[in-house]
Design goal:
alpha/beta; nine-stranded mixed beta sheet; 45% helix; globular; binds phosphoenolpyruvate; binds magnesium ion
């Protein structure tokens, strides 16, 4: 049978294929593996005997068979066709779908001996494009002679389009692998004009405009675009002559009034999301808006005959110049406040009632970049998805998207220029695509996919209040990684059993100065109280590397991840560090609290930390301030040296937090935020699993608590392996928790242990992945 009933008798077929292809993108690690998985999946879902992928070679004139399900495997890399040669080459040349019965009797058919092609009686070729450039051809062949319907070809075109995205993205990531195995396969064409790590945009065969980006949080959403413009247009403000001075003064007064009200509103929002202290900055803004000197300068310029916007432009520019020249970083920072005030005031002067962050409707937020303060003030309920133009893997927008559990793409080049406000979008943050004003067929597919995903979400919600329990009764703890106060609600909504990692640097990224002890105490207390009795692990500042505080002077380093970061900075700034420890100890009286030190790499560091805890306690005692005296103290194990030292560290601390995000990058020498080495950053590398198994053994022997708080536990394969290794406490982005509870409820720990024992003997992560995939296949 062919796949003539692809949409009619089984409407989910096309949709689930799209979804599974998305999964392949997320899970595959090498181009060849990805291509093999795709052809197998498409052939299976289409009930066709053959699915093959031909890709253009370096010179873009020869199609090479790169993967096949159904033809002889030896043909891969051997079958080559010039553009225009044979039916496959013809489809590429004509840039159109070719559907032919009895292909052998077509004069344009080209036979390759040894492929086994002669037995197939129907042939369908769909060209693949990268932007408008041909990329390759996907070919479907069936034993049965048949005609492909329009609906079938439409569904397969959508699939082929996704396949193009995968190939483009995987090809970029595969650059290094290809250098290592040049003779095995002909090398693939390097995308013209593309940089490794960048993603290109394109048009589907149906003329559909599509932008591409990197997945920050998976999911699919259809909705209108909510554009956030960076500039409110001081550059568009020019000198005007013959203005009516009275009118301009009145215009200014009205704008000042509106801006003050809006600022009060902003202050309230920030106080709700962060702390009163964080909101204080808007109080300062309010004071400036009422400042006599500021208003007089504006009046003077208007009296000289300038328009209100032009007067504002001049005044703000003078302030910015003056602040910008200041030595003191704190004062320089005030320049940003002036700019912020200026922009808001200008928007009111120009009659732009909505501020930059006032969202009119719920939709997909499109921005060049989101600033930390944006995150605090924006209305999260009105963001259904996120499209960010800048490509900052660890940017706030990414962290926020993960915490909110909304589909998000970053590095979407051209998003601001190509997307119109209010335009209908499909954000497919599984395959990394944004469809602009999609046509009815694609929209229909995605609506159904979105509906399916919503239903799945509702099903998963039923796990919220259930404990995570394996089939054979092993209890697994799932806690949340949090950063902002708004994460608390999300953590609770997803059934987190407390907080395994509170990253304290995040709330301070949104501020413009360092918080004092009381500010910190209030914030930590709020988090602890909100979790009403569930444990909260508070990690001390982990800045440096990829995380900077705007008011902290970070030196420029060639190698920041290997540099002055985290505990190293804290121990070099003992005053700041002790203040933070005191705030945590004070907050600890409000509920079960644990104190965690990051990036420990030697025993002296943890001893120095403990010494400071004793000093902090003595100081609080002196001040007669209540604090948690027997607070459990933990070390993050995220540097290979700490792994090796673990048996000794276990004698110094009460618990371990296993930071696999960093540990993997240090073990494998692969920067966690560098897309060029993403294929090297492999959580299932045998060296990583071996190291984790050793640590789990140390924790067991030393009877010390071990909680894994890296991102890897949100992947089914990894979680299965980790449970098999004997790890039973995890802390992760909260939206993943219901998923993981569902998964855990289906597996047996005993079986996972057996599989873990097997994979620990393996030397290749490819084999490990295969074994794990086989083990969990029955649960997916
Ligand atoms: C880690 O390194 O695994 C971790 C949890 O911490 P962060 O991602 O904040 O470095
Ligand atoms: Mg870390």
């Amino acid at each position: 049978m062919g796949f003539k009933n692809l949409k009619k008798s089984d409407k989910r077929l096309g949709l689930s294929t799209l979804q599974d292809i998305s999964t392949i993108i997320l899970q595959s690690h090498h181009l060849n593996e990805t291509l093999e998985n795709i052809v197998t999946l498409v052939a299976e879902r289409a009930h066709s005997e053959v699915c093959s992928l031909y890709l253009l070679d370096d010179n873009s004139d020869t199609l090479v068979l790169r993967a096949t399900c159904g033809l002889a495997p030896e043909s891969v890399g051997r079958v080559k066709l010039k553009i225009g040669e044979g039916l496959t080459g013809l489809a590429a040349q004509q840039r159109s779908i070719l559907s032919i019965e009895e292909p052998q009797s077509d004069p344009r058919y080209r036979y390759f001996a040894g492929t086994g092609e002669e037995q197939f009686h129907s042939f369908l070729a769909i060209p693949l494009f990268d932007r408008n450039e041909p990329l390759g051809v996907m070919v479907i062949q069936t034993l049965e002679r048949r005609v492909f319907t329009e609906e079938e070809t439409s569904t397969l075109s959508t699939i082929a389009f996704q396949v193009s995205s995968i190939v483009v993205n995987a090809r970029l990531l595969d650059t290094i692998d290809r250098q290592q195995e040049p003779s095995e396969h002909p090398s693939l064409p390097a995308a013209e004009g593309s940089q490794p790590g960048s993603f290109r945009n394109s048009t589907t065969p149906g003329g559909q405009t599509v932008l591409r980006g990197k997945v920050a949080y998976p999911g699919v959403i259809v909705g209108p675009a909510n554009l956030i413009n960076d500039e409110l247009g001081f550059s568009d403000v020019h000198a005007e002559y013959d203005v009516n001075i009275e009118q301009e003064l009145a215009r200014l007064d009205e704008a000042l009034r509106k801006t003050r009200i809006a600022t009060l509103y902003l202050e309230k929002r920030v106080a709700e999301r962060l702390t009163q202290a964080d909101a204080a900055i808007f109080h300062t803004h309010l004071m400036i808006l009422e400042d006599r000197g500021f208003i007089e300068k504006l009046h003077e310029l208007i009296d000289e005959g300038h328009s209100a916007p032009y007067a504002l432009k001049k005044v703000i520019r003078n302030y910015l110049e003056a602040f910008g020249k200041m030595e003191d970083a704190y004062l320089r920072e005030r320049a940003a406040d002036m700019e912020d005030i200026g922009r808001r005031l200008l928007s009111h002067l120009l009659g732009q009632k909505s501020g930059r962050l006032h969202l009119q409707h719920t939709g997909i937020l499109v921005a060049h970049r989101l600033l930390p303060s944006d995150m605090a003030s924006i209305d999260h309920d009105k963001i259904s998805g996120l499209i960010i133009e800048s490509n900052e893997t660890n940017a706030h927008s990414v962290i926020m998207a993960k915490a909110l559990g909304i589909p998000a793409l970053i590095g979407v080049q051209g998003a601001m220029a190509r997307i119109e406000p209010g335009a209908e979008l499909i954000l497919d943050a599984n395959s990394g695509c944004v469809f602009l004003n999609p046509n009815a067929t694609i929209l229909d597919e995605y609506f159904r996919l979105e509906f399916d995903l919503t239903q799945e979400k509702e099903r998963l919600n039923t796990f919220r209040d259930k404990p995570a329990l394996t089939q054979d009764g092993q209890r697994i703890q799932l806690r949340a990684n949090i950063g902002l106060l708004s994460d608390i609600e999300i953590a609770k909504r997803n059934g987190a059993e407390g907080v395994g990692l509170y990253r304290t640097e995040f709330p301070y990224m949104a501020r413009s100065n360092f918080p004092n002890r009381d500010d910190q105490y209030q914030l930590y207390r709020k988090v602890i109280e909100e979790f009403s009795g569930a444990p909260v692990t508070i990690r001390t500042l982990d800045i440096g590397g990829d995380k900077a505080l705007p008011y902290f002077n970070h030196p420029k380093e060639d190698n920041p991840f290997m540099g002055w970061r985290s505990i190293r900075i804290s121990l070099d700034h003992k005053d700041v560090f002790q203040t933070q420890i005191e705030a945590i100890l004070m907050a600890g009286v409000h509920g079960p609290t644990r104190l965690l030190f990051p990036l420990i790499s030697n025993i002296e560091e943890i001893r120095a930390c403990r010494k400071l805890v004793v000093k902090a306690m003595a100081h609080l005692q002196e001040e007669k301030i209540e604090f948690l005296g027997d607070i459990p103290i933990g070390a993050m194990i995220e540097v290979p040296a700490a792994l090796r030292l673990a048996p000794h560290l276990a004698n110094e601390v009460d618990f371990f937090a296993l930071g696999t995000n960093d540990l993997i990058q240090y073990l494998l020498a692969a920067d966690r935020s560098n897309s060029l080495v993403q294929s090297y950053y492999d959580p299932l590398h045998p060296a990583v699993l071996g190291a984790l198994a050793d640590l789990a053994n140390v924790a067991r022997n030393k009877k010390i608590d071990l909680c894994l708080c890296g991102e890897m536990s949100s992947d089914n394969n990894c979680l299965y392996a980790l449970i098999g290794l004997g790890i039973d406490q995890f802390s992760l982005s909260a939206p993943y928790i219901p998923h993981m509870k569902d998964f855990i409820s289906k597996i047996s720990r005993e079986e996972a242990q057996g599989v873990a024992a097997e994979i620990l003997q393996m030397s290749s992560s490819k084999d490990i992945r295969k074994r794990l995939a086989r083990a969990i296949k029955k649960f997916s």
